[in-house]
Structures are given as structure tokens and as C-alpha cells.
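haha ok so turns out i had the wrong file open the whole time. this is the CORRECT one, sorry everyone. sequence first:
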Amino acid sequence: MKKGMFVLLLAALLVVGCGASKDYVNQQISDSEARMNAKVDAAQSKADANATDIAKLQSLAQQLQDSVHLAINKAAGFENYQIIWTGEIRFAFDSYAIDQVASKTLDEAGDKLEANPGSIIEVAGHTDRTGSEDYNYMLGQERASSAKRYLAERFGIAMYRMFTISYGKDKPVALPDEQKAASKNRRVMLTIWGPPQ
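then structure:
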């Protein structure tokens, strides 16, 4: 009798133990599914954000392409252009501010551009030898951009008619041993090109 009771008790314990194991396994599966669903949701959110960024980039690329096509169409025939005016403006040390003397030269350039609607202008920024190469390229570009901005704001010259470049300190007009060489090299060269007349 005692032996039968023991077997019965053991069988009961096994049944209870199996039920507990089944509950544990079910809980583990449920937790694993919840973690997986959270990861899938996070991945979907990231994919949606990436899709939005890609759409924005595609839109910007299309706008850029449209601008390039417009510039190319507007530029057709420029290869026959001739220089019709040149000018130069100078800048203070480490500056790209347009002063009164520079504004007079830029006004002359603006008048010339208005008088010749098909003309274009090259705006080339230069610096003296002071500072690093990278800084001087940036400063030369800031100087050219200041002149371009002046012409756009004061005369309404279209952006596609103005081309800027920075030479930094690469193309000095005055050698270091010349008097006031640095101030001569801190400049923007303006060249207006127009159709043959």
C-alpha cells in the first residue's frame, strides 16, 4: 500500500511539474515574441524614416537637375563670348566686407551687366599669403560671394549670369618683395563676358 501511494504521489508530482514546465515554456515563448515584435516595429520605423529621407533627397536631386538644365540652356552660345569689361575690388586684411570704393566698382559692373542683358560675369576671389591654404580658399570664396550678393541685391542680376571661383593665395598679382604686395593681392577680379559686337 505504501508503495502504491508513493507511485501515485510521484505521478501527481510529475503531472504538476509538467504543468509548471509548460507554463514556463509558454512564458518564454511569449516574452521572445514580444521582443521580436518590438525589434520588427523599430526596424519598420527606421525603414519609414529612411524612405522619407530618400524621398527628400530625390526631390532635391530633381531640383538640382532642373537648375542645371536651366543653366545649360541659358549658357548656350557662351563659348563665343568676348571680354567686354574688367574691374577689381580690394579688401581689408582677413575681410570680405564691401567698402565704398569697392561698391563704386561693383556699381560700374552692375551698370554694364544691365546694359548687356546677355552678358555674364566671372567673379574670382583672391587672398594674400597669410594663413593656411584651406582658409585662404574659403576667404577667397567669401570675397567672391560678397561681390555676387551685392550685384544680385542691388541690380537684380540673375544668379545664372554670375560665376564665382576662389584662387586663394595661388595667383598673386604682386610678389612679396613689392610694396603693399599683401593689400594688392587681397582682391576680387571681375570679368564681364558678352556676345561679339
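The longest helix spans residues 2-75.
again sry for the mixup
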